[in-house]
Fold this protein.
Amino acid sequence: MGDCCKSCMTRIPYATLIATVMCLIGVGIFCGTMYRGTSFAIIMLDQVFHLRLMWIEAVQMIFVVIGASMAALGLMILFVGFLATGATRYKVYRAWGSRVGGRISCAVFMGITYILKIVWILILCFLTVVTFIFTVFWNMCANPNVQSHKNCIDLTQFYFMFPAGVAQQDMNICETKVKAFCKDGVEKCEIMFILATVSCLL
């Protein structure tokens, strides 16, 4: 029994297993928080600025699909790692053709992994910018005069971030719109996007 356990333990690719677990945790957090964060942002843009931007939903789905692809790739690489570790490669795949096939599959997976890594870095950069913008909005919402409805939130200085059709008065957020913008929109989005950004690092 001891030899059997020892044999099984030598076949486990520990580095690949740990990397896969980290990848799956990161992808799970990323997909959940990214989906929720963009959903809150879509609702906020509709209620506060009367904007319906269809491309946000497309970006939302693209990011979730990329995350799911990364998880699937991680599981496939783990499977290849099990086949290429320990006695398995000597007993099962000792023929020359099997070895060449294994090397080709490893090279293909490495290429796909590098491409997805570059995509992941671009997503991290995008989320960092989005999180920074929402942090600026959060600091504006934290102003005591805004919370007591004495002052409005003036977003006209950020006019370049809005589409051309947005009315000037919609960029001044006052009274009832403050709750929809700050509490229901920015606060929830900020938390989700911070978690999504951190999960990208996993």
Notes: Helices lie at 2-11, 14-49, 54-83, 88-91, 96-141, 144-147, 176-201. The mean pLDDT is 82. Strands lie at 153-154, 172-173. Residues 127 and 197 are 6 Å apart (CA to CA).
